[in-house]
């Protein structure tokens, strides 16, 4: 297994846990904007992926007590 596949495989479960919360936070901010449905979808999809990525990389992987909470080996 290559390093990219190993990294992505470890990130799947934390992304699964975080994505709904992040998605709802972004959706609450975007839903009343006067944008087309396509722009709202793009902002929500990109924002959810970016938010999960940043939280995973900066918090979950680096803070020891968060690893087991998100299903990672410490």
Descriptive account of the structure:
This protein has 74 residues and is an all-alpha fold. It contains three helices and no strands. The model has no long low-confidence stretch (mean pLDDT 95).
Low-confidence stretches: none
- Radius of gyration over all CA atoms, rounded: 14 Å
Distance from first to last alpha carbon:
20 Å
- H/E series: HHH
Describe the oligomeric state of these chains in a short phrase: single chain
pLDDT averaged over residues: 95
- Assign the structural class, choosing from mainly alpha, mainly beta, alpha/beta, alpha+beta, or little secondary structure: mainly alpha
The main sheet comes to:
none
Strand element count: 0
Number of helices: 3
Globular, elongated, flat, extended or rod-shaped: what is the shape?
elongated
Helix content: over 70%
Strand residue content = under 5%
Notable characteristics:
about 75% helix, elongated, about 0% strand, about 70 residues
Set down the secondary structure blueprint.
Layout: H1 3-30, H2 37-60, H3 66-69
Helix pairs in contact: 1-2
């Amino acid at each position: 297994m290559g390093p990219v596949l190993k990294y992505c495989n470890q990130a799947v479960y934390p992304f699964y846990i975080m994505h709904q919360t992040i998605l709802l936070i972004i959706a609450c901010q975007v839903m009343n904007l006067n944008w087309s449905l396509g722009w709202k979808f793009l902002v929500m999809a990109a924002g959810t992926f970016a938010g999960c990525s940043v939280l995973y990389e900066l918090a979950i992987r680096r803070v020891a007590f968060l690893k087991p909470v998100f299903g990672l080996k410490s």
